[in-house]
Amino acid sequence: MWLIDTLSIQPLTLPEIQKKWLNASANEDGDPLAERTFNRYRREAESLMYVDIKCDKHDGNLYKIIRPDGFKNDELQQWLLSAFRVSSLTERVNQREEVMIEPAPPAANLLQDVMEAIDGKRLLRIVYKSHYQDEKEIILLPAFVRLFKQRWYVIGEVRGKERTMTCALERVKEIELLEENKVKFSPKLRAILKPEVYFEHCFGIIRQFEPITIC
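The chain above was modelled as a monomer; its predicted structure follows.
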């Protein structure tokens, strides 16, 4: 993560990378970075972030981050790098009155069950209390999650209803990962329950109607 973060700011030669590593907060023991170790870290970084780190011999042997054609995870990559930077500064920030931060997104502890359900195409039993309705139990087949304005949401299909639902994780009172797996979305909703499609014509996290073209 440190290597990706450093090279995302500017390309560097190996000696420049080695010099920066000596003073990096991620290098707790102050160990030097041998070329062999650097190449191992480089391969791990490439695998972790789905990029290539290439040495441009025609431009002063600078190491540069190369994103493959069709790379779609730039926002996620930037989010991960931001989290890494904050984590690296935690000890210093924790003791400073000059730093003001927002509260962390609530209910992030529920994400593990949600992501397991998405990966295994499994159902979630959710006891949900919205701002407008009484507490109710929902069987949800989750499709994806979204972080919006410091709040986590899970979007999916309500089992047996053939309708979608957006649940704020902070409003979830109970959550249970059910055993049934490889559950399929209904044909009616399968095409729209994708992040790039579902919110394409929306602002925020509310999707009520199909878009209308006005001539």
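Residues 108-198 form a domain with the SH3 type barrels. fold (CATH 2.30.30.520).
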